[in-house]
Design brief:
single chain; mainly alpha
């Protein structure tokens, strides 16, 4: 039953994060990245701490763990959001989402080094198959993927920051509930972004003023992307582990491709639909367990 809830939670988180690329693109069409990120985290922090105090869901953090929370927040949201948002200024939402889908390629090794989580044949083959399917989702009729190189590098920074985040959140998830972890990472992330915002973007944002078409997606990002999705994902890591939760990032480009079609008219080809099927098949294989298989690849 716990596994069923964890799988449901991680799928909903991926669905939200897939749509977050659309919301971010909408917000970035009006405001610069630091402005979007600061407002997003401000709203998320206020929401999380108000609800946390009212419901008593915030755990007391041990003195020895404050450093872990600070490092966690440095990886994500700070470095991750910088890479993602500046990268999104240069590439489409679908390309950005496929870069995030490369995370599971590295997660088994990260999980093995940090927690000695076994790298099984099913996890490895399912991850590789699913990632190959992702590429089929985003290529054009000439079998080409055209993207800005600086945008790709920025998104790679976001990918590697997620790897560091996954290791730390796996440790903290066994001592604190998901709500506490997400609340404090949002607060510390906000404190890191505020000085940058006032230094580089405050005057421009002030001149731009309040534009609801750009503010509304930031609100959605705060409530769903920075709050609900992170809580669900943290919960899934606690139950399923780093690798089995992380593999689900491969379905983000699938959802994003559909959302991009709905909002930007990006059409899917037959090969893209084949890619979707392969992604789902890879996810299924990665979740398989064999009772007699007790040895990992490493």
């Amino acid at each position: 039953m716990r596994n069923t809830k964890a799988y449901f939670a991680v799928v909903i988180a991926m669905l939200i994060w897939a749509f977050s690329f659309i919301w971010s693109k909408q917000a970035l069409s009006t405001y610069d990245p630091l402005s979007v990120l600061s407002l997003r985290l401000l709203l998320a922090s206020l929401l999380l701490f108000i609800i946390g105090f009212l419901t008593g869901r915030l755990n007391k953090i041990m003195r020895t763990d404050w450093k872990l929370f600070l490092v966690l927040s440095f990886w994500e949201p700070f470095l991750y959001f910088i890479g993602e948002n500046y990268g999104l200024q240069r590439v489409s939402p679908t390309v950005a989402s496929v870069m995030m889908a490369s995370i599971p390629i590295f997660l088994p090794l990260v999980a093995w080094f940090s927690t000695r989580e076994k790298i099984t044949l099913t996890k490895t083959s399912g991850t590789i198959l699913s990632f190959l399917g992702v590429f089929l989702v985003i290529i054009n009729e000439k079998m080409e993927l055209v993207a800005d190189i600086w945008g790709i590098l920025l998104l790679l920074m976001a990918v590697f920051s997620t790897l560091g985040y996954s290791v730390l959140v796996n440790k903290l998830a066994h001592k604190y509930n998901a709500y506490t972890i997400v609340s404090y990472q949002s607060l510390f992330g906000l404190l890191a972004f505020i000085p940058l915002f006032f230094t580089f973007e405050f005057h421009k944002t002030w001149e731009t003023g309040f534009i609801w078409e750009a503010i509304s997606p930031i609100i959605y990002l705060a409530v769903f992307g920075s709050s609900v999705a992170f809580i669900l994902f943290t919960y899934s890591i606690k139950i399923l582990g780093i690798t089995r939760s992380g593999i689900f990032t491969n379905i983000i480009p699938v959802f994003t491709a559909f959302f991009s079609f709905a909002f930007y008219g990006e059409r899917l080809l037959g090969i893209n639909y084949l890619g979707i099927i392969i992604v789902v098949l890879g996810l299924y294989i990665a979740q398989l367990k064999f009772k007699k298989n007790t040895s990992g690849l490493l």
